[in-house]
Give the backbone structure.
Amino acid sequence: MFIKPLEIPEHILFAKSMDRRTPASHSSKKTISNRAVNLLSGYKGESSMKYHLQFLPEDEFHILHYVRIPDLYGHFQIDFLILSRWFHLIMEVKNIYDNMNFDDMGQTYREIDGKVDVFANPVEQINMQQRRYLDWLRKHGFPLLPIEKIVVYSRDDTYLRNLTNDKIISDIVMHRDKVLSKIETLMNKHQSPLISEDHLMEISWRLLNEHVPEDADGMEKFGIDYSDLIKGVICPACSAVPMRWKSGKWWCPSCSCVSKTAHRPALADYALLAGDYINNRQARDFLQLKSIHTAKRLIQQENFQEFGKTSGRRYKIDIDKLVNDKVHNENAKVHT
Ligand SMILES: [Zn+2]
């Protein structure tokens, strides 16, 4: 079962919002866009694992997505930690296009038309995670059990080449469609339960409690000020900005599509970039709305927590609700 389900981490949402709201003319635009693309592609690779992992026996495995645990050296981060009473499995997910080579010097690289990109060696990376996780179990006095590890390439079309036929690499590195059979092999290898159900639960809860999400970078790091940001509601169909509020709907002057909910991602952008609290004036400025009443209605329909009265009233934007409220977001699809 998913103890810590897949959810897009806030620092990635932040990177995405920054990219959407930074004008193309800004000197940091390229850095910001590259960062957003890389983080999103990593998350996309991880979320594609959900399909495969759901086939694991529900009661026997605890699956934790994205755990980041403090230790003596900072934090160690694991893409998926799969816990059972027989063994624990650390899974590192890579989303790399085209090809990936493992050579005799422990280098990993992609080569396209003679151009070589060298990457950090994922096997060394996962060995380090294994050591740090083991130290963590020891520190808490949990019984020790085998810690297995795999590196999974999430794109089916990545050509993996183990240039020296290194047994360790062929054992640990794989495509995502091999993951379930690998776990089956591990289940056959470790047949006696080494910890109780209670211990397993306790380890999961301790990890959940100690998880510290990565901080978003902050706009200052990229030399961006609130006044630099692109304001207005972005068209969900063609990305033009700003949409206009007309007869109870957002209307896009570029592609003429209409939407009742296009302001919701804009409010999430505001919360991620400018802060969780918003008042009517700030909402009008960011959504590029003239009417105080419309701004009030749009914010109040979200049932955010309210603070203060009349003109000083502020609302606490619930990012999670805006991002994960799929039912609401889908019910109000774009019409053209
Ligand atoms: Zn449009």
